[in-house]
Structures are given as structure tokens and as C-alpha cells.
Model the fold of this input.
Amino acid sequence: MNRMILPLLLAATAFAPLSQAAAAAAPTPAAIVRPAPPVVHYRTAKVDGVDVFYREAGPANAPVVLLLHGFPTSSHMFRNLIPALADRYHVIAPDYPGFGQSAAPDHKQFAYTFGHYADLVDGLMGQLKADRYALYVMDYGAPVGYRLALKHPERVSGLIIQNGNAYDEGLKAFWDPIKAYWAEDTTARREALSVLVAPETTKFQYTDGVRDVSRIDPDNWGHDQALLDRPGNKDIQLDLFKDYGSNIPLYPKFQAFFRQYQPPTLIVWGKNDQIFPADGATPYLRDLPKAELHLLDTGHFALEDKFDVMAPMIHDFLDRKVAKP
Done:
């Protein structure tokens, strides 16, 4: 019996190193199919004397995608989209002053206007040496981005438009109290808009028009409301509601830019949005007849509900229309 066991032990000993070497050399499935996710950097730049926070990710020499957020959020709204695009694109997402992690100077000492925001974003892009970019514009991001496009039309490589208005048809009943403030700048008209920074309104913006609210992270309105509730922030927001009226006279210029330059355009819009309804989406086709239009069954913050649909759609659009050959 001992004579039979000894040869078997010797054979096992001989094959063991080979088996271990083969196991060590064999790549794991995770190493094959799961590349490391892009790293997102959180930075602050001094632009015209004010601290402007921005998120940045992706290869430095890749085509630039500039993400411009809406009210009442910040670059936080792009926290999932940034790494989804940063495999191939240099993604930059700033916070406007008064939002997110950017400075929030007293409204009596700082001009909270859309023209000022466009100038600050322009200054940031200059510091980052980004002289050509695709614009993702949403809500407030639309007038900021379009004002930037008027300043530098040759720099715009493409447009991704998500519930961002540039046509009279897009301002429906939700805007009536704000229009009243534009028409009559009184304390009563101003204070009547305080409800727009209340917690129930912030939550409404995320949940209204969404079929399955369990898809929406409640941290969204908790995050935004905490920033809206900072001392002095309500006056910042009320100043911006007033100044939004300065964008309307620029609509013809925005539309002329579309017609003249015909940037590649993807329109992806939450069609159940009461703030910027789908009535404002279809008019883009008058001036951008080659635009790709998708109306999604969701609300204002479409990315929160339809990220699984939108992220591949946006990446594909950029790959086809913006990426270097």
C-alpha cells in the first residue's frame, strides 16, 4: 500500500506548481469586462473675484462637454452622467454662484443675472483653455448656454437640450406669477414667488410627471433644499426669477444662432414637465430641422428618472456628431 501512495504523492507535488501558475496567469472575468470608472475631480476656480466650483472628469485632450444645470439644483444633477461620458469626453460641470458649492455673495453686492452667469462660465472655460465644447443645457442652463453661444458661436460643437426653453410657446401657466413680477416689480409680487423655494415645490420638481417615484432618490430635494435654505439665498433666487425676463427678448437671437450655425442637436425632453412643457421642445425643429427629438414619459428632472435611457442616447449622439474621427 505504501509503495502505491508514494508515487501518487510525488505526482501531485509535481503538478501543483503548474496548477498554481495557471491559476495565477488566468485573468479574472472582472479584469476583462470591467474597466475602472473615470475619476471625477471637484475643483474651485476664482473667476472675476468669485469662487466657482466645478466638477471635471475625462481625458484632458478629449472633446469637451459643458454641462449647465438648472434651478434649484447644481452640478449635482450631473453626478451620474459625468462618469458615464468621461470615458471618451472631457466633461466640465460648474455651479453658478448662489448654487451648489460656488460662492454666494450677498445679492445687494453681486449681480445675480443670466448675463453675469454666462460671463462667469465663459471666464471659467477660458481658464481651463476649453475653446470648443458641446453644451448640455437644462432649465436655467439654456439661457446661460445660449448667451455663451452668442458670445462665441464658433466654439459650440453641438447642443444637448433637456427641458430648456428658447421659444415663447414654452412658457405656460406655471410662469404666470413670474410674468406678473416682470410686469410689476413690487414687494408683493416678489414675495408671492417665495413658494418656489419652499420644500414642497423643490420635491414637486423632482416627482411631478414621474410614473414610478421609487426611481427618484429623495436625497435630491433634501440636498437642494438645504442650499436654498441658507441665509440670504431666497433673495438670490428671487433676483433670478426677476432677471429670467431678460432672456425673453433674446429668444430671436438664440433662434438666429440656431438657424445660422446649425449645430448638431439632440433634444431629449421630459414631456410631462409643467415648468418647461413639451410645447417648448417642438419649436426647435423650426430652426434646427436636423435635430434629433425624443420626448420621454417623465417630468422636469428627466435624468433622475430616465438616466438608463438618456445616458446611452447622449453618448451615442456625441460619438456620432462631436467626437474626433
Notes: Residues 1-19 have pLDDT under 50 and may be disordered.
